């Protein structure tokens, strides 16, 4: 009886499977037939629309063709290819004549969707858009169109030439100073930074905002020179670095402007933050970064790769990321004291006539100079440097103490620590440390 029931059940299941298979076959056949009917219908109607130069109908039919995936490069039917070519060329010409950047961007994106990026009008529109937006000559605008995010013109272009990478390695080496600060939270100072890769960031909206802000500061300084002081930085003066950064600016298509203290500076970041720069109109964080707020809640930049390395976070493979940024420092609020009032620093730039703060910890403590701005538009993340730390040296043990993470604290928390020499420190709990665990602090 059991065997008979099992056989009957098997036959029932087989019949059901056969019915499902037949239903799927019919569905596929109907879908193919429907697609074929749509293809023939669109082509027939397109022939008629082209014959009478009915542009609204042509555009409507092209939309249907895109939705039906009928426009697919070399497999596109000839009549649809001809219509797409005519429509894209006409829209591109009109946008060029209008000299409107918004219309140009829209026409470029539409041409890309119609697979018409080989048109002479497409190249002309790219050139006109670059001219009107004052984009750097070195930007691959076609790649920005093809790899756009929504309506954003953004691209990350890897620079693989050995000679170019050698320049960035030289810049890391020339600005490296093996000095320990307590911001390392007991982590050893590396013996050097070894470049893995470098990418150029092309983000048209961030660049436009940066250029507007640079021009605004230039005009302010021209109208009121006041106590303007020109500052040199290690990324532009020491061991041939000036030749390197001047060359980078020239390659990018826009020379640095010394009259507004425009310089290249480093900013330490994470892999996630670096990737977001070319995924959206990401802004450098004004408050909450790993750099702290000694001089106020601003964007912290450094002339030395070692200093910015302190604020990077490694990937599982050990790679870290620095941004090499163009920055407009303008009129600089200079401080060489051991202590600073963060609110006074903010007020100097947000309420008075200064554009940035220079905290000279090199003079005050023998460590590094830090540069802080409070307007995101004064910084353009120009290059992303991916690197690894070389073998590190442990800080002198007589100046290092163990600190226990208190209850309720964790990574990113700032806690107060009493050092053996009587000083009171503010220590940042490093990643991977939880309540009750010890970590090293240098004092």
Give the helices and strands as they follow along the chain: HHHHHHEHEEHHEHEHEEHEHEEEEEEE
Average pLDDT, to the nearest integer?
81
Rounded to the nearest angstrom, the radius of gyration is 30 Å
Please give the alpha-carbon distance between the first and last residues.
85 Å
Count of discrete alpha- or pi-helical segments spanning 4 or more residues: 13
Unreliable segments of 5+ consecutive residues: 27-35, 286-290
> Could you give the order of strands across the largest sheet?
1-3-10-6-4
Tally the beta strands. 15
Q: If you had to describe this structure to a student in words, what would you say it looks like?
A:
- This protein is α+β, with helices and mostly antiparallel strands and 443 residues long.
- 42% of the residues lie in helices and 19% in strands.
- The protein contains 13 helices and 15 strands.
- The termini are far apart.
Write the layout of secondary structure elements.
Layout: H1 2-51, H2 55-67, H3 78-98, H4 101-113, H5 120-133, H6 141-146, E1 154-158, H7 162-174, E2 189-190, E3 193-203, H8 204-223, H9 241-252, E4 262-269, H10 271-276, E5 299-302, H11 305-309, E6 320-328, E7 332-335, H12 342-350, E8 356-360, H13 361-365, E9 369-373, E10 379-389, E11 392-393, E12 400-404, E13 414-418, E14 424-428, E15 438-442
Parallel strand pairs: 7-8
Antiparallel strand pairs: 1-3, 2-11, 3-10, 4-6, 5-9, 6-10, 8-9, 12-15, 13-14
Helix pairs in contact: 1-2, 2-3, 3-4, 3-5, 4-5
